[in-house]
Amino acid sequence: MIANILRWQLPLFFNHALKATSKVMNYATKVSVIVCVLTALASTKALTEKRVEFFREASSGLNVNAYYLAVNIFDALEVTTKMVIIALFTVALRNTVASDGAMIVHFIMLGWTSASWGLIFPLFVPPKSVVLVTAFFTIFTSLLLAGVPGTAIDYQKMSESSFLNGVSSFLSPTRFFMESLIVDEFKTMPEQHGFTTTKINVADSEASFTNGFTYLHYGAGDPDVSKRSRNGWYWGVLPSLFVGLTIRSLGFILLHACNRHQRLEKPIWTDLKARNSMRLWSAILMIFFIGLAAVSIITFKM
Q1: What is the pTM for the complete model shown?
Q2: How many CB atoms neighbour CB 109 within 10 A?
Q3: Reduced to 3 states, what is the DSSP secondary structure of residue 197?
Q4: Structural domain of residue 78, as residue ranges?
């Protein structure tokens, strides 16, 4: 009889922790998707609104590299300002015990990766379809590839497969933001919630144990993720930075490869055959892109 009572009543003791976990996950998912989509759509305007002027000036000899670099710099400054304002409102409304500074940094990185995709699609997607394609891509990848439990690529699959981890990290703008926000919250919880500890060195393989982080596969890249702390969790900052740089370097390649006839230029293959300088710059851009992608992959495993 006592065993039956424990069997049915014991889970009730952990309802508070289970409900908190569910609420944090739902909150991180909703915030990340909304901010990601709106940020990416706003960034597309930097290229779509001045499309005609860009083609006109480019056909007159405008340096397209300087133009795209300037667009990236000013868009990054604008997005950073927006993300800081959004993060401050979130801090005030959320009233979390986690680090306020860490939340601001995570929002800035979310804006960085989201805006990177917003500056990619206008380069090869027709103007009438840019909004639709950008919105679909960001929503699709944020909901299905960001690690949400039960989706095509969740955190368990990412921890078991380096390939799926790479696909999620490169294609989903919200992948690192969601995990960072969730881990930030869970790391502040006391030990009875089943996520943190202050008793042992969790990086020591001999003292490893199963807790909420290992069970849910959050923070799999950080061996010390279970250490209780209110200072924030910044593991996803470096990967987010290099993923954004990789996407933007791809933009430079697409800038030269797409819409060349509207700039009164010859097809890319014709120029590559005829001009040594074109081959040289193409090789430099490809090496730069591959190098950033390689560094990004390395940061996934750090």
Answers
A1: 0.84
A2: 24
A3: strand
A4: 18-234
